[in-house]
Prior knowledge:
With 283 residues, the protein is of the alpha/beta class. The chain contains 10 helices and 8 strands. The termini are close together.
Amino acid sequence: MQLGIHAMAWTPHWSNDSLPLIDRVASLGLDFIEIPLMGIDDVDPRAIRTRLAGAGIGVVTSTVLSDATDITSPDQDVQQEGVAYLQRCIDVTADMGAPQFSGVIYCSHGKRPPERPGREDWERSATCLAQVAKHAQSAGIIVGLEPVNRYESPLINTCAQAMELANMVGAPNLKVHLDTYHMNIEEKDWQDPILAAGDRLCHLHLCENDRGIPGTGLVDWEALFRGLHQIQYGGYAGLESFVDVSGDMVAGTAVWRDLAPSGDVLVRDGMNFLRDLMRRHSL
């Protein structure tokens, strides 16, 4: 299993000013950094690729769709804006040398419709994702669907739903990205979703139930890692916690109180805890 961290531990908006974070992640002895593509105009993939080569670590990318790029919209122009945006994300991902791109890429993040999604919403998402997956396959990129909690998406909240949508698309490079923060709200068990995803699990966000230091909350880490051991998971697993937040990042992450004494403490203690789990579960 490759252990890394999301750049949003330090910044919600990636630009060339963020490049020193690559060296910081390397200094922590981690395998990769996850780079957000929401502000894609400011992402310089060639500069990232050069910095990664110097630091000797890997990279994956992620994003979320907005109302303007919602592929479940009945407006075909909005759907195509979403497809074009996701395809651009894939091109940027490939240009920086990353093998994988994931996130809330099946409908608008934070969408609150007046009623439950209907079959037409699923079909629109699947039709658009088929185009995206085909584009990604030609670039050698894996695409991951990340289920998130009911307050962040009306469409995909569980591993089972993500698997259903992936089956509708039927693309071999369309896989599942699980997140323990969201699993804590939406799943009934810690191990079963891991086993259900099996070899379709491509990425995992390792978060405590309050997004604080892993090992200090309610997540059943032993059960989770038993599942990861059972499927012999060798993919990406990244810490995604928010502590040193300010400005626009406060509202974006909904972090209204200190979740750890500092970001450095969260990363140090969290990584030590996760490395111990990996060692004990032979991952």
